[in-house]
Amino acid sequence: MTADDSAALDPDAAVSVRDLRKHYGSVTGLDGVSFDIARGETFSLLGPNGAGKSTTIEILEGYRDRTGGNAQVLGLDPHRGGVDWKARLGIVLQSSGEPGNVTVREQLTHFAGFYPHPRDIDEVIAAVRLTEKAKTRIKNLSGGQRRRVDVALGFVGRPEMLFLDEPTTGFDPEARHEFWELIRRLKREGTTILLTTHYLDEAAQLSDRVAVIARGRLVDIGAVDEIGGADARIPIVRWRDANGEQHEERTEHPAAVVAALVASAGEPRDLEVIRPSLEDIYLGLVRDADAQVAA
Question: Which residues is 181 bridged to in the sheet?
Answer without folding.
Answer: none
